[in-house]
Specification:
By secondary structure, this protein is α/β, with parallel strands linked by helices. Helices cover about 30% and strands about 25% of the residues. The protein folds into two domains: about 5-155, 3-Layer(aba) Sandwich (Rossmann fold), CATH 3.40.50.10610; about 170-270, TolA/TonB C-terminal domain (2-Layer Sandwich). The strands form four sheets. Strands 1, 2, 3, 4, 5 and 6 form a six-stranded mixed sheet that branches. Strands 7-14-9-10 form a four-stranded mixed sheet, with helices on one face. Strand 9 and strand 10 form a beta hairpin.
């Protein structure tokens, strides 16, 4: 980023910090967590958005008198530990509740897009409104900065952000266990009730998917459960707990039941 761009980002951070200090908050020293910025809208992670969020959080630290800045490494550790993709940070409510799990009073969200040969960053402050009011005082007053677009910045804008999910190839091969569909049949669910929602996920109205890699034994039971893609608010544990009690029709090889590793996807939808 050019020196001019850094100056715009610092100015935006300074303005955001001042607005938080001016809010009528119960916390004498409100804590702030910066969430990865998305491309255009939530759901599209961006390498540029993640780097700008890192840099914005650093800038906030320079203007943090009266504020506490939550280290973004805590968020990255949370996503890594739970194998949670950035795309699960799909709403302001989800981001705010995750931030508060990490001790933040509120969170700063952002979107990055192109506009007339410039990179435009729009940040939104969530959770810093007066406790007595249902509405957030910053709902309408989003803050914006624009940077000169370069080929490098544009390429980073359209490059996906960090992937915290695990790849199936990362799971080592196991003796006596076949891979589903490769020379053997595919196990089928005989009794597979949906997992329960956690109270925290229900409160956040979270919707997302947990992807598991499991071994379905020759007896039709789930074992050796590995998380490929998790979800926040304890939903990964809920999915694993449910799958442990599922029953399957085992895969067959030459008419004989065998153990196979296969993938199970559980989608949580809020109604």
């Amino acid at each position: 980023m050019t020196r001019l761009g850094v100056g715009y980002l610092d100015s935006l951070a300074s303005h955001a910090a001042q607005k938080i200090r001016e809010a009528n908050l119960e916390d004498s020293k409100p804590k702030v967590l910066v969430i990865d910025f998305f491309r255009s809208s939530s759901g599209n992670s961006s390498r540029l958005g993640t780097l700008l969020a890192d840099r914005f959080s650093e800038s906030l630290t320079a203007y943090s008198a009266g504020l506490g800045i939550v280290d973004r490494r805590i968020l990255k550790d949370y996503l890594t530990t739970n194998w949670t993709p950035l795309e699960d940070l799909q709403s302001r409510e989800v981001c705010l509740r995750i931030g508060r799990q990490m001790g933040a009073t509120g969170v700063i969200l952002g979107t990055v897009d192109e506009e007339n040969g410039q990179i435009r960053l729009t940040v939104h402050l969530e959770g810093f409104g007066p406790v007595a009011k249902a509405a957030d005082i910053f709902q309408v007053a989003d803050e914006r900065a624009r940077f000169p677009e370069t080929e490098e910045l544009r390429a980073m804008l359209f490059e996906p952000g960090p992937n915290y999910a695990r790849k199936a190839n990362d799971i080592p091969e196991e003796p006596g266990v076949f891979k589903s569909g490769l020379g053997v049949g595919v196990p089928r669910c005989a009794s597979c009730p949906s997992p329960d929602y956690s109270d925290a996920a229900r409160a956040a109205k979270f919707q997302g998917t947990v992807l598991l890699s499991i071994v379905v034994t020759a007896e039709g039971k789930a074992s050796s459960i590995c998380v490929l893609q998790g979800a926040p608010f304890g939903l990964t544990a809920k999915a694993v707990e449910a799958v442990q009690n599922w029953r399957f029709e085992p895969a067959l090889k030459d008419g004989t039941p065998v153990s196979v590793r296969t993938q199970i996807e559980t989608t949580f939808r809020f109604y």
